[in-house]
Design brief:
The complex is a heterodimer of chains A (363) and B (482). Chain A has helices at residues 18-21, 25-28, 56-59, 63-71, 78-88, 95-107, 120-131, 153-160, 181-193, 205-209, 213-227, 244-256, 275-292, 307-321, 338-351, and strands spanning 109-112, 145-148, 166-170, 198-202, 231-235, 261-263, 297-301, 331-335. An eight-stranded parallel β-barrel of chain A has the order 1-2-3-4-5-6-7-8, surrounded by seven helices. The longest helix of chain A has 18 residues, at 275-292. The termini of chain A are far apart. With 363 residues, chain A is α/β, with parallel strands linked by helices. Chain A has 15 helices and eight strands. Chain B has 482 residues and is of the alpha/beta class. Chain B has two domains: 12-257 and 457-475, 3-Layer(aba) Sandwich (Aldehyde Dehydrogenase, Chain A, domain 1); 262-441, Aldehyde Dehydrogenase, Chain A, domain 2. Chain B has 15 helices and 20 strands. Chain B has helices at residues 56-74, 79-95, 97-108, 112-133, 161-174, 189-200, 215-223, 236-246, 271-283, 303-315, 335-350, 382-385, 401-408, 424-433, 466-471; strands at residues 20-21, 23-25, 28-30, 34-41, 46-53, 147-148, 151-155, 178-182, 208-210, 229-233, 252-256, 262-265, 295-299, 354-357, 372-375, 392-398, 416-420, 438-441, 460-461, 474-475. In chain B, strand 4 (34-41) and strand 5 form a beta hairpin. Chain B is globular and about 65 Å long. Chain B starts with 19 loop residues before the first strand and ends in a 7-residue tail after the last strand. The model of chain B has no long low-confidence stretch (mean pLDDT 96). Classes of the chains: A alpha/beta (363), B alpha/beta (482).
Chain lengths: 363, 482
């Protein structure tokens, strides 16, 4: 990468190219009539030497070494965090950009049913919804995955076989996580044997809040071993962690322990996903990437009901983590209702007028 | 995936731009005897509207009208009645908020996001706040019978045209003064729409008079024998001239002048939020803010990582059409200001500071500057000493809290400062050592009508906002001062 003299203070960047992190200058600019003119400018500087990749073995050697690492992470100022998120929420996304983000959002959804009342019929219907979200517009993207309890995985896997839509299953004594590690691993095994492609585990919030970080770490590493190549999403249940500092620490703890995704919530606790909490988690995966070169993922689950909500999240993904996270492999929504609002808004963009819920299939 | 935000421009016609604006004197919109000014859209460099301007004779007329209104109507009116007019003006601003926001963006060049979410609502808040004081002045801590001063001459700058008008008018009127006010030559439009709101509120003729004009009209107004109070916001150079010309007169003076505010980031700060605060401190309103955090002092132990984060964040700022709702950094107000910023940036490079410039591409026309950060800006460099009034940050490092305070105070100015640390005792200790009128703790550029704002040293004297803002417009010389 060529480096203009004006940026000479910067050592060579080892991390993502600026183009990967930022929209191209042309994209940022409302095009003036005669096009931009400005002479080539220095490239934005990437964090080049933020520290060495974490020595996971040393950090996780004991509960006190884990505590030392997590408590040394930079603090979070709640007022500043919420102010930043509020400004991002005022971005005005129109026309082509809106349609682009609606399609992306649909393709990022883990279409979810996690009820005691779930039946095979309900799950099959949901799978069909994932396969054909809008029968009137077959070009509507399919969702990323279906998310169900372990005993429903086989039904989902059979219905979705060969479609490319993934089957995710919650496990580890979801949603409370209040059981032994053996039971949690058996839960994972049940889901894997039935054909799950992704496992959504919960952390032991009690252990986390009592400062027993080693227990949380060990449960995640055990789950990761059990998953092997299967994607592991680690649910922090941010609504129970109490502080933004806690969310940041839990995010790093999960990343250190090998989580592929860090996920906000089970959807069973209020508040579930919020913009500030998701912002913190996006900062964590961004910082992790800058430090290690590995791109980890984030899933915001629960509480996302409208297209407007979804677009706010995607704008935040774009501006906090970077455009390369705008990909179903790196960002997901855990939701059920939002898909139909996305479909209605998609139709509005295509048809130029609003339709009603009667035109969208319930599942 | 590449994400392009489609342009989302606010509709310029909402501003209801007229081809020509008149002065507001003695309750009437009239032509002045000065040559018409031409107001320009800084985002295009093209003319927006003609504005009738004042002559020295018009200054006489306006001051005489203000005097009549003071003697005959306003000074005799009960405070509760004065308050009603101020509440009406506040509501009028809120009702025409969208129009005022678009007009301000067209005339000033600042992003619609700021005029919509900050300038206009805060202007209304100032009127609401001081409306509440109008009938309580004798309980404000200035003795039992603090008197109004008479006719106030006010001269305001171009960086927050409507908001500065509100800062000046609301306390003056609440305290019982009448006003002759001169807006900046390059940004006279929003205050002339405010004049319509004032007229619609039924404010008695002559209580507020608005005289567009250049610096000579400002000088004539300030030096006029018929004024009792002078309030000026603008450059330190002009402020010094004003103080010189007013020496030996009976006129009460308050000055709000330049600044070179320091944002101090300690190693234990909440880093992501400190980055936001530094960005907001220097790139808000294109850095054309007297209290801008134009110097960053960052603790050496985190400097490299912090600056990398800061540059990554600053590179994401969207520079461009101020009317686009997604624009973060708009146009510099005038060609003259653009020249000054460019010249000081060149000085920074020549004096050896490390220059980083945002890769944002700038529109072909109009007055734009890409966000700029100078690292290793030593105390002797012009970029560290002079007020740039643009989106240009000068960065240096420190090792200890004492060194941070010494460096922050090493300026003739003393308007604002910011302290970023998670340690409360350190924040309080450092704030106590800073010679700045406003010290923000873990935030920056936060404004509230209830809080006093003003400076030390070459940043001026007197306070605006809060009960202290009333004191500037009351005869408190032999009374206790809050």
């Amino acid at each position: 990468m060529s480096k203009p003299a004006a940026a000479a203070t910067t050592p060579a960047a080892k991390q993502p190219t600026p183009a990967a992190k930022q929209p191209t200058p042309a994209a940022k600019q409302p095009a003036p009539a005669a096009g931009p003119h400005v002479a080539p400018q220095p490239l934005p500087v990437q964090r080049s030497k933020p520290g060495l990749p974490p020595d996971v073995a040393a950090i996780s050697a004991s509960n006190s070494s884990l505590k030392a690492f997590l408590h040394a992470l930079p603090a979070v100022d709640p007022v500043g965090l919420e102010a930043r998120v509020a400004v991002l929420g005022t971005r005005s996304i129109k026309k082509d950009s809106k349609l682009q983000l609606i399609d992306l959002a649909i393709s990022m959804v883990d279409l979810t049913t996690l009820e005691g009342a779930d039946t095979e019929g309900k799950v099959r219907n949901l799978c069909r919804k994932a396969l054909l979200p809008d029968p009137d517009y077959p070009d509507t993207p399919r969702t990323a995955a279906i998310c169900v309890y372990p005993d429903m995985v086989r039904t989902a896997a059979t219905t979705l076989a060969g479609s490319g839509i993934r089957v995710a299953s919650v496990a580890t004594a979801f949603p409370a996580g209040r059981s032994s590690l053996e039971v949690k691993l058996a839960d994972i095994a049940l889901a894997l044997e039935a054909g799950a492609d992704e496992i959504d585990m919960v952390i032991d919030r009690g252990a986390f809040l009592s400062g027993n970080y080693a227990k949380v770490f060990e449960e995640i590493t055990a789950a990761k071993r059990a998953c092997g190549q299967t994607v592991l999403k680690v649910i922090l249940e941010t609504g129970e962690l109490g502080t933004y500092d806690g969310v940041r620490r839990a995010s790093w703890l999960a990343l250190l322990a090998g989580a592929d995704f860090i996920k906000t919530s089970t959807g069973k606790v209020s508040p579930a996903a919020t913009l500030p909490v998701t912002c913190l988690m996006l900062q964590a995966v961004r910082d992790w990437h800058d430090m290690t070169g590995q791109r980890r993922s984030v899933k915001a689950a629960g509480g996302i009901r409208t297209t407007k909500d979804a677009i706010k999240y995607l704008v935040m993904v774009n501006e906090v983590a970077g455009a390369s996270w705008l990909d179903p492999n790196y960002f997901r929504f855990g939701a059920s209702g939002v898909v139909n609002d996305l479909i209605m808004q998609r139709r509005t963009q295509k048809e130029g007028h609003y339709s009603g819920p009667g035109y969208v299939t319930v599942d | 995936m590449e994400l392009h935000y489609a342009s989302a421009p606010e509709n310029a016609s909402i501003a209801r731009l007229a081809s020509r604006y008149q002065m507001f004197v003695d309750g009437k919109f009239i032509d002045g005897q000065g040559p018409d000014l031409e107001s320009t859209n800084p985002a295009t460099g093209k003319p927006l509207a003609a504005v009738s301007s004042a002559s020295a004779a018009d200054v006489d007329t306006a001051v005489a009208a203000a005097r009549r209104a003071y003697e005959n109507v306003w000074s005799a009116m009960p405070g509760a009645e004065r308050g009603k007019y101020l509440f009406r003006i506040a509501r009028g601003i809120a009702e025409r908020a969208r129009e005022l926001a678009v007009l301000e963006t067209l005339d000033n060049g600042k992003p619609i996001r700021e005029t919509r979410d900050f300038d206009v609502p805060t202007a209304a808040q100032h009127f609401f706040y001081y409306a509440g004081w109008a009938d309580k002045v004798q309980h404000a801590g200035f003795g039992s019978r603090p008197g109004a001063l008479g006719v106030a001459a006010q001269v305001i700058p171009w960086n927050f045209p409507l908001l500065m008008a509100a800062w000046k008018l609301a306390p003056a009127l609440a305290a019982g003064n009448t006003v002759v006010i001169k807006p900046a030559e390059t940004t006279p439009l929003s205050i002339l729409v405010l004049a319509e709101i004032i007229a619609d509120a039924g404010l008695p003729a002559g209580v507020v008079n608005i005289l567009p004009g250049a610096g000579d009209i400002g000088a004539a107004l300030i030096e006029h024998d018929g004024v009792d109070k002078v309030a000026f916001t603008g450059s330190t150079a002009v402020g010094k001239k004003i103080q010189h010309s007013l020496a030996g007169t009976h006129k009460k003076l308050t000055l709000e002048l330049g600044g070179k505010g320091a944002n101090i980031v300690f190693a234990d700060a909440a880093q992501d939020q400190a980055v936001e605060g530094v960005v907001n401190g220097i790139f808000f309103n294109q850095g054309q803010v007297c209290c801008a955090g134009s110097r960053l002092l960052v603790q050496e132990s985190i400097a490299e990582e912090f600056l990398d984060r800061l540059k990554t964040r600053a590179a994401a700022l969207r520079v461009g059409d101020p009317l686009d709702k997604n624009t973060d950094v708009g146009a510099i107000n005038s060609a003259a200001q653009l020249t000054k910023i460019t010249e000081l940036c060149a000085a920074g490079s020549n004096e050896g500071a490390g220059r980083w410039t945002s890769p944002a591409m700038l529109p072909e026309q109009g007055f734009f500057v890409a966000p700029t950060i100078f690292t290793d800006a030593t105390a002797s460099m012009r970029i560290s000493r002079e007020e740039i009034f643009g989106p240009v940050l000068a960065v240096s490092t420190f090792r200890t809290p004492d060194e941070a305070v010494a460096k922050a105070n090493n300026t003739p100015y003393g308007l604002s400062a910011g302290v970023w640390t998670e340690k409360g005792s350190r924040a309080m200790g450092v704030a106590a050592g800073l010679k700045a009128g406003v010290v923000w703790d873990n935030t920056f550029n936060k404004f509230d009508p209830t809080a006093a704002f003003g400076g030390y040293g070459e940043s001026g004297f007197g306070r605006e906002g809060g009960p202290s803002g009333l004191a500037a417009y009351l005869n408190t010389d032999d009374e206790g001062v809050l």
